[in-house]
Amino acid sequence: MRVHLIAAGALMCAAALVSLPAQAQPKQPKLGERISTTACPYAGVTATCLMINGADGTVFNITGANPKPRLSARMIRLRGTVTDKVSMCNQGVVLERVRWTRTRQRCPN
């Protein structure tokens, strides 16, 4: 009886692991690729860093944007070029040649 319970428990655990959906990883953007997205900028792990999420969930480092977008309740439409540069932020894919405009869309809370 005890062996049957152990086997049943093992079978349930195996079934649970097999049935878990695989989480899709965001595709890695190519060097020099031009990125275009509309999202809300947010502070990075380091206070001086500025990040934005792409539509597929990729985190982009837009700290080099000049002028810097303010952290507000409005989304921005952004274009930038993917680089292989390393940032002090140590977070996200670094974009350069960042151009952005504020939209009328509100950021979700």
Provide structural commentary:
- The protein is an alpha+beta fold and 109 residues long.
- It has a single domain (1-109), classed as OB fold (Dihydrolipoamide Acetyltransferase, E2P) (Beta Barrel).
- 17% of the residues lie in helices and 35% in strands.
- A six-stranded mixed beta sheet has the order 1-5-6-4-3-2, with no helix packed on it.
- The longest helix has 18 residues, at 2-19.
- The protein is globular, with a radius of gyration of 21 Å.
Helix content: 10-25%
Query: Roughly what is the average pLDDT, rounded to an integer?
Result: 84
Identify low-pLDDT runs.
16-20
- Count the domains: 1
Report the count of strand segments. 6
Task: List its salient traits.
single chain, OB fold (Dihydrolipoamide Acetyltransferase, E2P), six-stranded mixed beta sheet
